[in-house]
C-alpha cells in the first residue's frame, strides 16, 4: 500500500476503537420509575438496577423505617436527586392517588411502574379466615389494581407510552400447599396484567409480569410467619427450604432478588419494546419441572 493510504486505514481503526471505549449512554436515562414495596428485597434490588441505568426512582412502601434505610443506601450510591420515597399503603385509594401525584410532581411524570408491594400467607383452607382471605385480596389483587389505575391516568396524559411490570409469583400459575388465598390473589394479578396490556396497547402502555420462584435471601417475607408456616408444611428450616427449592428446579440454582430485578429491567427497557401481556418466570426452571 502507498504510505498515505496505510496511514488512513490505521487512523480509521483508531477512531473505531475509540468509539468502542467511550461510555455508552445509560438505557433508562431520563426515565422515571415508581417501585411499590420499594423498601423490600425485590423492590430495592429493582430500584438499584434501574438507578444503575440512569432512571430516577420513587420508592413507595408502607414501612417508614425500611424506606429510610433503603433510601440511605441508594442515595449514597446514586445521589440525592435520583431517589425519593413516599409512604403509601397500596390498599388506600387516596394514598395511592396522592403518592402517584407526588411522584409526577417530583420527577415530572412516570414512565415505569413496578407493582411489587406484597405479603405472603399460608394456612389450610379450613383455617383461612375471611380476614386472611381479604387481606391477600386487598394488598395483592386490589393493591395492584389501584396503583395501575392511577399510573394509567398519568401515562395517558403524558402520551408517551410506558411500561408496567407486575411482580406476581409462580404461585399465581401453580398451586402451592396451604396457600389458597395467596395463590388466588397472585393469579388475579397475572390476569389483571393481561387485561391492562390489552387496554393500554393503543396508548403504547405495555404491561408484563415477572413471576419469581421462592427468593429466600434478602426478602422480609421469609423472616416472619410465612417462613414458620412453610417450614412446618415441609418439615425443614430456612436453609432446608432454600435447598429444597433449588433441588426442585431444572437448573439447580437459587433465585435471588437481583435475578428478579434483571427481569424487571428487561420489561422496562427498549429490548422488550414488542412484549406486552407476557409472563416471565424467573424460577430456574421450577414451574415446568415435575420434580416434586
Ligand atoms: P419483602 O417483604 O422483602 O418486600 C415487600 C415490601 O412490600 C415490604 O417492604 C413491605 O413493607 C411492602 N408492603 C407490604 N404491604 C404493603 C402495602 N399494603 N402497601 C405498601 N407496601 C407494602 O418481600 P419480597 O420478597 O421483596 O416481595 C416482593 C413481591 O414479590 C411481593 O409481591 C411477593 O408476593 C412477591 N414474591 C416474592 C417471593 C419470595 O419468595 N420472596 C416469591 C414470589 C413472589
UniProtKB/TrEMBL annotation:
It comes from the Bacteria. One of its GO terms (molecular function) is pyridoxal 4-dehydrogenase activity. Keywords: Oxidoreductase. Belongs to the short-chain dehydrogenases/reductases (SDR) family. This is Pyridoxal 4-dehydrogenase. The chain holds residues 408 to 699 of 699 of the full protein.
Amino acid at each position: 500500500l502507498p504510505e498515505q493510504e496505510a496511514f488512513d486505514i490505521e487512523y480509521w481503526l483508531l477512531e473505531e476503537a475509540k468509539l468502542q471505549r467511550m461510555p455508552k449512554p445509560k438505557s433508562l436515562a431520563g426515565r422515571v420509575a415508581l417501585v411499590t414495596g420499594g423498601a423490600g428485597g425485590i423492590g430495592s434490588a429493582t430500584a438499584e438496577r434501574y438507578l444503575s441505568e440512569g432512571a430516577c426512582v420513587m420508592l413507595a412502601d408502607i414501612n417508614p423505617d425500611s424506606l429510610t434505610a433503603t433510601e440511605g443506601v441508594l442515595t449514597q450510591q446514586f445521589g440525592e436527586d435520583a431517589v425519593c420515597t413516599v409512604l403509601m399503603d397500596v390498599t388506600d385509594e387516596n394514598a395511592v392517588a396522592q403518592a402517584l401525584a407526588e411522584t409526577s410532581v417530583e420527577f415530572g411524570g412516570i414512565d415505569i411502574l413496578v407493582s411489587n408491594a406484597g405479603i405472603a400467607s399460608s394456612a389450610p383452607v379450613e383455617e383461612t379466615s375471611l380476614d386472611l382471605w381479604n387481606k391477600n385480596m386487598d394488598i395483592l389483587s386490589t393493591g395492584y389494581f389501584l396503583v395501575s389505575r392511577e399510573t394509567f391516568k398519568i401515562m395517558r396524559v403524558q402520551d408517551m407510552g410506558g411500561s408496567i411490570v407486575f411482580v406476581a409469583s409462580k404461585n399465581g400459575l401453580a398451586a402451592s400447599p396451604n396457600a389458597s388465598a395467596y395463590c388466588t390473589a397472585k393469579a388475579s394479578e397475572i390476569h389483571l396484567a393481561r387485561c391492562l396490556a390489552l387496554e393500554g396497547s393503543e396508548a403504547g402502555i405495555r404491561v408484563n409480569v415477572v413471576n419469581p420462584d421462592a427468593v429466600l435471601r434478602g426478602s422480609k417475607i421469609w423472616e416472619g410467619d410465612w417462613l414458620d408456616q412453610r417450614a412446618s408444611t415441609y418439615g425443614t428450616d430456612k436453609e432446608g427450604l432454600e435447598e429444597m427449592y433449588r433441588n426442585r428446579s431444572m437448573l439447580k440454582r437459587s433465585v435471588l432478588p437481583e435475578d428478579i430485578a434483571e427481569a424487571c429491567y428487561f420489561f422496562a427497557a427498549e429490548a422488550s419494546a414488542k412484549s406486552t401481556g407476557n409472563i416471565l418466570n424467573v424460577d430456574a426452571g421450577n414451574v415446568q419441572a415435575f420434580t416434586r
